[in-house]
């Protein structure tokens, strides 16, 4: 018994030392992992922190020879006017700019006066001075825009957010419109908030988004808009990324995320009396093509075309076909 006790007394300290050593080793490894994660996070924040790009620099890079500017509600609004003939006004989607219409402009300006503009919060126009981004602000802004240009009667086309502004305008000012073109229009779909929008609604995190802008996120957004990821080229990513760095545009993104309801009443759609063409991408992951049929059903005598292998921006991804269809529609040949 005494020998067993003595043996136990001799082995216990060694076992304890081994256990303590293993515990200290795990502690050091855990601390090392935490430091590595912390340093990687610091590196990621540093790599994705971007200062604003001055407006004049962006205007040199992304302005057109026929770019123009006018003042509305304290904003210097960037717009483009090309060609001669009946006016055709083009309204872009959220997270876009008038550049989305470049192919349409090249094609349609041969027969029409094509007018595109950067909406408040986007492109070279930049943020609304009061941070207001409701559907009613956009409707009021657009009405002021067409009045300043003295457009008494015109054709109107819009994509995404621009299509929402367009159909809302058509319900309030049918006397001003000749024909209406809606591309992948919001209205009937259930409202949902993407993860990036939820981050933009989160205090402190949304402020970080005013300076931290991963270029990879821009590419992911564009790949979500397009059906064919191969068409999302570096030049496209660069333009979207750099225009987002226009002073105030990143804050405008988080301000828009705070708007709880940014849609006019959908019941108004059935009041549209303007001849209407509905265009949609069959692979639109933002707004399902099933809602194209809702617009087609609600708008009297509307025409509908759905493009295969096309996402949320048909005017970019299927530019030649969609521009030809629009010209046929405007000329009564569709």
Task: Chart the SSEs and their pairings.
Elements: H1 2-48, H2 55-62, E1 67-72, E2 75-82, E3 87-91, H3 102-108, E4 113-117, H4 135-148, E5 154-159, H5 161-172, E6 177-183, H6 195-200, H7 205-208, H8 215-225, H9 234-244, H10 249-257, E7 276-281, H11 290-298, E8 303-307, H12 314-317, H13 319-330
Parallel strand pairs: 3-4, 3-5, 5-6, 6-7, 7-8
Antiparallel strand pairs: 1-2, 2-4
Helix pairs in contact: 3-13, 4-5, 8-9
Overview in brief:
With 334 residues, the protein is α/β, with parallel strands linked by helices.
Structure, explained:
The chain is α/β, with parallel strands linked by helices and 334 residues long. Helices cover 46% and strands 14% of the residues. It has an eight-stranded mixed β-sheet, with helices on both faces. Strand 1 and strand 2 form a beta hairpin. Helix 8 crosses helix 9. It is elongated.
Low-confidence stretches: 3-11
Computed Rg: 27 Å
Amount of beta strand = 5-15%
Structural class: alpha/beta
Tally of discrete structural domains: 2
CATH class of the largest domain: Alpha Beta
Please write the string of helix (H) and strand (E) elements: HHEEEHEHEHEHHHHHEHEHH
């Amino acid at each position: 018994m005494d020998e067993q006790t003595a043996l136990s007394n001799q082995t216990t300290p060694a076992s304890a030392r081994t256990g303590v050593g293993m515990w200290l080793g795990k502690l050091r490894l855990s601390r090392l992992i935490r430091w590595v994660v912390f340093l990687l996070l610091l590196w990621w924040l540093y790599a994705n922190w971007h200062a604003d790009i001055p407006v004049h620099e962006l205007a040199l890079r992304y302005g057109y020879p026929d770019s123009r500017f006018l003042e509305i509600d304290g904003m210097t609004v960037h717009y483009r006017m090309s060609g001669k003939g009946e006016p055709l006004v083009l309204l872009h989607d959220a997270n876009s700019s008038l550049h989305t219409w470049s192919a349409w402009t090249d094609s349609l300006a041969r027969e029409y006066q094509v007018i595109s503009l950067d909406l408040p919060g986007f492109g070279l126009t930049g943020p609304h001075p009061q941070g207001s981004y409701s559907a009613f602000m956009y409707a009021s802004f657009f009405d002021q825009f067409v009045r300043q240009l003295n457009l008494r009667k015109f054709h109107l086309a819009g994509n995404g957010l621009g299509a929402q502004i367009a159909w809302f305008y058509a319900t309030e000012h049918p006397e001003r419109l000749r024909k209406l073109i809606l591309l992948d229009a919001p209205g009937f779909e259930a409202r949902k908030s993407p993860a990036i929008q939820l981050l933009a609604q989160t205090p402190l995190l949304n402020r970080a988004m005013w300076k931290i802008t991963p270029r990879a996120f821009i590419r992911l957004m564009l790949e979500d808009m397009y059906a064919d990821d191969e068409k999302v080229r570096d030049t496209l990513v660069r333009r979207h990324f750099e225009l987002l760095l226009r002073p105030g545009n990143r804050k405008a993104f988080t301000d828009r995320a705070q708007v709880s309801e940014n849609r006019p009443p959908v019941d108004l759609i059935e009041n549209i009396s303007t001849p209407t063409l509905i265009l949609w991408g069959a692979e639109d992951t933002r707004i399902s093509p099933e809602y194209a049929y809702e617009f087609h059903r609600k708008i009297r005598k509307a025409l509908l075309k759905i493009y295969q292998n096309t996402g949320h921006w048909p005017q970019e991804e299927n530019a030649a076909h969609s521009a030809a269809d629009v010209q046929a529609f405007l000329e009564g040949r569709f």
